[in-house]
Amino acid sequence: MQDFYGIFNKRAKCLMLAAIGLTGLSLPLTGQILISLESAMEIAEKNSPSIQRSLLNIEQYQYSLVAERASLKSRFSLTLNPFNFSNNRQFDNQFSQWFTNRELYSSGTLRVEQPILKTDGTIALINSLSWRNNRTEIAGFGENSNQAFYNNLYLSINQPIFTFNRRKMQLEELELNYENASLNYAIQRLNLEKTITSQFFNVYLEQLNLDIAREELANTTNNFEIVRNKVEAGLLAEEELFQAELNLANAQLALQDSELSLANAEEAFKREIGMNLDEDIQLSTDLDVREVIVDLDQAIAYALDSRMELRQRQISLEQSQFDLVRTKAQNEFRADVQLTLGIFGDNESFSRVYDNPTNNPSVGLSLNIPIFDWGERQARVQAQEVSIRTQQLELSEDQKQIRMEIRQAYRSIQTQMPRIDIAQKSVENAERTYDINLERYINGDLSGIDLERFQNQLSTQKVAYARALINYKTQLLDLKILTLYDWEKQEPVSVALPNNR
What we know:
Layout: H1 2-25, E1 33-36, H2 37-47, H3 49-70, E2 75-92, E3 97-116, E4 121-138, E5 142-161, H4 166-232, H5 238-273, E6 281-284, H6 296-306, H7 308-328, E7 334-347, E8 358-359, E9 362-368, H8 376-414, H9 416-442, H10 448-483, E10 485-486, E11 491-492
Parallel strand pairs: 1-6
Antiparallel strand pairs: 2-3, 3-4, 4-5, 5-7, 7-8, 7-9, 10-11
């Protein structure tokens, strides 16, 4: 009896040490970084290459949009020619005479131009000031010279008619490109959340496997001591000790394999979120789950109203409509109206330039009239219309696909809670079965091979239970991404877009 008391005391000590070791696994060691799923997402958002590319794409379109809007404001420009001198010998065909022209002039032009977004026209106020010293020597006629200031101030209006508004369309396209880039960022962020969650729980499972492997090693070590004491006391055959040694070796090898798998999973996880591979991490998570009620009709309605992929498809359709307008504008009937109103003055004295001004209005109309293009324009328009119908069909199919995916996710979620309950009961049954058979093993009524089988069964059920919990959380995340609605918090998903306009 004293031997058995000694055996039980050793077993109790081993189990206590194992419990202390497992408890230590849940607490970060000195120098370890404790990471939750939320903090992992924060790190990944700052360091993920895909997120960085999306942000750069947004930044590019944002600058283009800022530039386009700036181009709609008044433009001020000043052109200066401070000095220009020429001395030319030329022949006049009308008078059959050679003449020499010497010219010295300076000029400057101030231009204020304002685009008109609503009409795609342009209005400009222009003032051109110059000083000119001109001298001409004509053989047989003597010499003529002129030195004066000249100023031309006029208002110019240019308005295309019978065509589409190109400036307005370009602005709308840039706005759609910016919105599309923002949607891409939001989609990338949701995909990143799914990837990080998967990697996070993968590391968690590996840590759980390591905990179980350590527990198995503690149990196997304790069982080995029991068998060895019994063999030494002549209560068991020596073959049982050989099997106990083999079980101990297998448990030690399983622990090494679990450590290796955990190291690989942690490095893959740290690489994914952008951490240094040499940093030591410990995951912090709560796998407690509660049943979440999902309304299928509401889920489909949320998805059809909020899914960013559908909005992107609509943006693509709008851009195709723009392409159709451009296609119809090929070989189009178009007119341009030009109108200028101004006064011109010249005088030797700058202050008296407008003593005797001259009005110089002008108006012009230019027409582009296509006559025959062999059906080119009509064929191009029809091709673009077919492309639009194709995209409309794809939009309809996308909506059907979304409905189908949500229904599948909904059906899968409905089966998860029963699976979790079954997995939990399986763990409880496996624990009771292991405890019962451990007593039988201690009493010599069960072989070491059979006890190892019950130990493996318990470990398998623990992992299966953890996987059932993870599957439920993962499928809730999938439904959240599919519907853009957080069913656990009962609130819409708000994806913050950076650098909002």
